[in-house]
Specification:
The chain is an alpha+beta fold. The protein has three helices and five strands.
Length: 115
């Protein structure tokens, strides 16, 4: 929907779909949102309405095979899979910060949660 599109240079995008076309669920989405909050980095939500068909990622397949909590996320882009794919430079920097926060803070956050 036009008013709910991810925007470039506005943070990492968390992808969610209630029909499980993406691997993100309530637990893994919370973990990423909380780590982003703790790291002071922006995140965006991308939710496909459950009455609209959409593509998928390999996330749900991998998560079901390995049993590891999984979240589908990425950097917003224009013309995905095109030879002229475009991304925002600020998103790369904030995505790096999100991953640094994940590696330094996930253990503490995980121990403090009881899902």
């Amino acid at each position: 929907e036009k008013n709910h599109q991810p925007a470039m240079n506005k943070g990492t995008v968390i992808k969610t779909n209630n029909n499980q076309r993406y691997a993100t669920n309530a637990e893994t989405g919370f973990i990423i949102r909380e780590l982003a909050r703790r790291g002071g980095v922006p995140v965006q939500e991308f939710v496909v309405r459950n009455d609209c068909p959409c593509g998928s990622t390999i996330g749900p397949i991998i998560a079901s095979l390995v049993g590891i909590r999984t979240v589908d996320l990425g950097i917003s882009s224009l013309s995905m899979h095109s030879i002229r794919e475009t991304m925002g430079c600020e998103d790369i920097a904030t995505n790096i910060q999100l991953f640094k926060t994940f590696y330094s803070g996930f253990g503490d956050l995980d121990r403090s949660c009881s899902f």
